[in-house]
Amino acid sequence: MIGERLRRLRKKHGWTAKEVGKRLGIAESTVSGYENGHRSPPLDLLVRFADLYGVSTDYLLGRTDHPAFIGRANTENVRVPEPLWGIMRESLPNEEATFLYEFLNAPHAKRRQVMRYWRFLQLEEEENP
Known about the structure:
- The protein has two domains: 1-64, Orthogonal Bundle (434 Repressor (Amino-terminal Domain)), CATH 1.10.260.40; 73-129, no CATH class.
- The N and C termini lie far apart (45 Å).
- By secondary structure, it is mostly helical.
- It contains eight helices and no strands.
- Helix 1 (2-13) packs across helix 3 (28-35) and helix 2 (17-24) crosses helix 3.
């Protein structure tokens, strides 16, 4: 579970195992070992992985399917307070809650693209009800 999520998050960020290793101060082979499930990262490194990817350690451990993380402010990302995330997780289907999380944590340029497409769909619906 941990390895699959580490690999998925690395690819989502567009990083190689070598780049992740460099960011964390560990060898590329160590990153690969964690991703392939041959090894498990120690707790301190698990926390550093979570910080790097902007997710909770509970998400990496498979204790939740919601990667929400409330941490360092990132000027490009929107941070939603944990109580609000709790309401969203309880109120929305998993796929929609995950979409909102990913949308809010996407780079500003990508969020703008999604908003433009959404406006396009709204205009299209108005023209063809």
